[in-house]
Amino acid sequence: MRRFAALLSIAGAAGALVSAPASARPVSYRSPPAERDIAATMSDPQVQESVADAVGGISEAMLDISLAPFARALEAAGDHEAADEVGRHSTLRDVAGPDGERVPREMARRVPEMMGAMGGMTTALERMLPELARAGEQMRGAAERAGRSARHARERTRDWSRDWDY
């Protein structure tokens, strides 16, 4: 079971990495309507089903990834035992064993729930953005005040040190 959970985590992380560049642009709290529709899109059952199908297909393909480069890296790092365990000709499917066959179905099964949760978080974060922007402005002001205070202290120290003979 631990191995299955680890495989599910690896597959999920890889899927997130694949999709990260597409979602990397910042959104202001004055988002245009298209970006405000993210929550609705994430909660749309048809979109969720399409994404679930894609995730299932991607994770199925990931099971056939060769682990040889990983084994060579382990070998180069001096971890011969781990390199032997991974194997030079194995795939993620080989390492996963019988539980690995469940990964694509399990990931696809979980996608709608995860997307619904992300849609809800998107709505909550959108509501928080004005407050977060206000807090950011307060932090900026505090940092500017701290900078002025440090410059003033440095100038006082410089003036004070001139009065002393060394």
Structure description:
This protein has eight helices and no strands. The protein is flat and about 75 Å long. The chain has helices spanning 2-19, 33-36, 38-43, 45-62, 68-76, 80-86, 92-96, 103-162. It starts with a helix and ends with a helix. Helix 4 crosses helix 8 (103-162) and helix 5 (68-76) packs antiparallel against helix 6. It has one domain (2-16, 26-135). Mean pLDDT is 77; it is low at 17-27. The longest helix has 60 residues, at 103-162. The protein has 166 residues and is mostly helical. 11% of the residues are buried.
Describe the structure concisely for a colleague.
By secondary structure, this protein is mainly α. The chain has one domain (2-16, 26-135). It has helices at 2-19, 33-36, 38-43, 45-62, 68-76, 80-86, 92-96, 103-162.
